[in-house]
Amino acid sequence: MLQIFVTSNIRIKGAPTPLKAAVTKALTYDNPAYVDRKKKRRPVWGIEAKIKMYFYNMGDLIVPRGFLKELKTQVSNLGINPDKVMVNRQVEVDPISFGQWNPSYQLKEDQLPFVSAILNDNGIGVAPAGSGKTVMGMKYIHEKKQPALWLTHTRDLMYQTKKRAEATLLGVGKIGLIGDGVLDYGDGKLIIATVQTLQANPHIVEGLKQLIGTLVIDEAHHFPAPQFIDVAGHLPAKNVVGLTATPDRKDNLEIYMFMGIGPIIYEISRDGLYESGRLIKPEIRFVYTDFQYEQASVRNEINSVDAGGEDLDYNALKNELIHDEARAKLVAENILEASKHGAQIVITESVRYCFILKDLVEKLTIEKGKKMLSTAVVHGGISRFKWLNAKNEMDAMTRVNTGRAEEYRHHKKLGWQVKVADYTEQEFKDWQVTKGERKAILEAAENKQVDVLFATQLAREGLDLPHLAVGHMAMPKRGDAAGSRNGSAVEQEIGRIMRPDPLNPGKKAYWFDYVDYNVGVLKSQYNSRRSVYNRLKLKVPSKPRTQKQEIEDFLDNMPW
């Protein structure tokens, strides 16, 4: 007899063959990584051709909770009433009160339908950076009246969310925190946790299972990461919502998010936010560098990646770029010049580049006799060594024997790897940022005591400094792939300067995008970033004229 039990996942007992066939077919997807490598005629050894989002346990078919709606449809198609065979065992406890909602945070006109939609159904709410996702998430918790767990992926977001909860939920009491070395359940009404801490402590997740009735997954596009699947995928809360500004992913694995949480149920339009002044359109300024990189002369087999159709060592490319003195000076000079526009954020993918640029800005300030700027670097921590992929066992052994690597190992999924120094001993010592220092830097930035903030991944999501007026994308990165909107890193980063400043109603913002036009792969990335800016409906400067166009113009203007 068919029985369906709904908890953190869905267990289907006694499924007839037609239902099994329909469910397994619907939950079998082409693996984007396999498809991409096949398309580029690359080896696919060890990569599954299909992703199967189901498995069998003791003869029962187990599927993700985000498949519930489609499952009901499939059961109905067999002439069976879903309500008669489904048993909901998701957690819903006695209602609790979060006190009065702070009237200073009345929802805006575009926020009301968003909150209404997520209150009526589980799934994904999409809203641009600056639209008030955290406030809307708090309103959701307030109205659901269930003990809530808010999942995030950085400690900075954990503390920022705590501040917003205290400001909006006036009767929330003591908020629990799990992460950054803290294990405090508070009064049990609202717990904010980093997913990394919960994944590392499954006993905590086990203890929360029967206590949490509402689960909010912040920055839900990260859900395909193992941490989120291991944590959120085991919590049987009745109410589940994911919040994100950028649901599309570069790896095209959004299906994990949709199946693990639910479909997109509402999306706030960016147009309305521009019109209402709740988002500012920054002026885009492309800065073209003279950086050159001879790919063939430095090619090696470690971490070679596909980047615009060329097989090259992207780590070596980044290292060359970081140590290019002329390029760094160009960035630093632009930072100095842009200081007249207000507070700045300089975003890089490298802690080393943060310090190189910071030191150079300070040096040029002195040389030019200008007023010293207050600068600071904030990052998520560094490790002395890192593991890189090797071509094979012989390659790994050779690198260790020739002193180019410390040791080697075989990774179950990634193959042969070598351990190499990422920082010198002195750099590792000088560039560490302690928990207290990090907190002090962010508080200083929030209090407008930092003129130029150099930041790494932290800046992509959650950094809420409305007074930032200038942003520099100091290192290249990919934007939108053709026909997609998966340039989430670019969208998140430029979003840091698009928030209006209540204390500066006439705020103007400027975004410096450094273009390494002479390197094919980096030129390709630049073109993909243009796609992001166009999608965000920003005014994008024209591309530079090619040498061919210049020659054609020259010939057209000749007197013959």
UniProtKB/TrEMBL annotation:
Helicase C-terminal domain span: 356-552
Record SMART domains: DEXDc, HELICc
Identification of the protein by name: DEAD/DEAH box helicase
InterPro entries tied to this protein: ATP-dep_DNA_Helicase, Helicase/UvrB_N, Helicase_ATP-bd, Helicase_C-like, P-loop_NTPase
Higher taxonomy: Bacteria, Bacillati, Bacillota, Bacilli, Bacillales
Keyword set includes Nuclease: no
Species of the source: Sutcliffiella horikoshii
Domain Helicase ATP-binding: residue ranges: 114-265
Keywords, sorted A to Z: ATP-binding, Helicase, Hydrolase, Nucleotide-binding
A GO molecular function held by the record: DNA binding
Organism domain of life: Bacteria
